[in-house]
Amino acid sequence: MVRPIAVFPSPTPELAQTLDLGGYKWTAVENELDSVRSEPEEGWFGAIIVIDDEIKDAWAICRSLRRRDANIPVILLVRGHLLDELNMRDELYDDFCLDPFHPRELEARLRHLLTLPTHEVRPEIVEQGTLTLNIETYEASIAGRPLDLTYMEYELLRFLASSPGKVFTREVLLNRVWGYEYYGGARTVDVHVRRLRSKLGEENANLIQTVRSVGYKFGTARWN
Amino acid sequence: MVRPIAVFPSPTPELAQTLDLGGYKWTAVENELDSVRSEPEEGWFGAIIVIDDEIKDAWAICRSLRRRDANIPVILLVRGHLLDELNMRDELYDDFCLDPFHPRELEARLRHLLTLPTHEVRPEIVEQGTLTLNIETYEASIAGRPLDLTYMEYELLRFLASSPGKVFTREVLLNRVWGYEYYGGARTVDVHVRRLRSKLGEENANLIQTVRSVGYKFGTARWN
DNA sequence: CTCGAATGTGAACGCCCTGTGAACCTGTGG
DNA sequence: CCACAGGTTCACAGGGCGTTCACATTCGAG
């Protein structure tokens, strides 16, 4: 996952290390305003809020996150003597971990909360312009018109569309979408791109753009 | 709350005391079969499963609870050196607590998980289009015509129909409907799907749709 | 403009996924 | 002991679709 986790306040070295080792991207936020301003366009992946000195600020951020999008997973780090703070505020967080924490416990909680799609009430959907991909149902549609895609076409389109504008070489695509080492079938990508374009329709074929001598990218067409 | 919490295995004095002081009713269960047999008519309020000696039994109970997809909240009590057990089994529990536990931490987790209104009571009747499933009587009918389904056919149909449109892999279906680890009998799912389709009748056979290379789903597009 | 490399395009091959019928196994009731 | 129902596994056939190839077209450097 590329989306960052919001961390309040600036994490201790132990916390930063645990996040880094877990492969998570994170961004420190200093206050509620910051948690809004620093939020990336795709939204936070989750939030880790330390309940310690600045208790009021911490809860303010939680409320702010809940108000904006109830589905952002929130994990609290809380000192034992502050456990009572959680009482009557159950709706402001999803999980908590006693601080100081055991790295493996926090790791397990992060994995459980963040990698499990069950907690996401909203259907997992990728949207780019008029293109909509529903991860749960494996359905795709563009401008309301449903697309009948095969498995590989769907996977390729999803991969491209989830990083709009970014160029991928054929080799990278084979690795990430097909999942095996490059064996010499680079043209396979071309053919799938072609079928995708034809299924996207005349007016949307340029959603997948060729970058000559490099590869392909997904981009909303701004000129015709 | 009157519904009891299932506790596996028989709780230690500390655990029993924590539950009693929290005002929870609880029932000790000894094994998977017990967790089904002892379940009150209104269903369990939640479950506390200790991951310790009888690991396999513990997970079997979790799978069994998850099988009747009423969202029974499951909290694990796990020794630190067994944390790895949780890996890849995220769908089998909702929260965990390191054991030995601090009473106030467990108390907070119980309150957080059990008092939140996220866990609704299991539905008595599932209706999707012309399909009707009566949970109590195990009766199914489509367009008024009653269906004569076997137990597994009924469970499979109910699971699929309760998340219309969502695609499930054979592996997930074996886990959630059959309730065991995936050992290679994926074709079992195919055969049951085929029988379901034939019993649904010619005109409704497409209610269960094949998503090639992925799995099966119930119904068609949700978003149209 | 010319040429070579990169990409688009149509078609054909063949693997692997799924549907399907039937056998096998297990438990239950008579 | 047999008959039967229901669940699981197996073998085989058909077809979808991913891959590859040959050829056409386009692009860009010089």
What do you see in this structure?
The structure is a homodimer of 224-residue chains. By secondary structure, chain A is an alpha/beta fold. Chain A has 2 domains: 5-119, Response regulator (Rossmann fold, 3-Layer(aba) Sandwich), CATH 3.40.50.2300; 125-218, Orthogonal Bundle (Arc Repressor Mutant, subunit A). The first copy, chain A, has helices at 13-21, 32-37, 55-68, 103-114, 151-161, 170-178, 186-200; strands spanning 5-8, 26-28, 46-51, 74-79, 95-99, 125-128, 131-134, 139-142, 145-147, 167-169, 208-211, 215-218. In chain A, the strands form 3 sheets. Chain A has a 5-stranded parallel β-sheet, with helices on both faces. Chain A has a 4-stranded antiparallel β-sheet with strand order 6-7-8-9, covered by helices on one side. Chain A is elongated, with a radius of gyration of 21 Å. The first copy, chain A, starts with a strand and ends in a 6-residue tail after the last strand. Mean pLDDT of chain A is 87; it is low at 118-122. Chain A binds chain B through residues 80, 83, 86-87, 90-91, 93, 95-96, 98, 102, 104-105, 108, 111-112, 115-116, 118, 123, 132, 134, 136-139, 141, 146, 150-151, and chain B through 80, 83, 86-87, 90-91, 93, 95-96, 98, 102, 104-105, 108, 111-112, 115-116, 165-167, 211-214, 217, 221-224. The first copy, chain A, binds a DNA duplex (30 and 30 nucleotides) through helix 5 and helix 7.
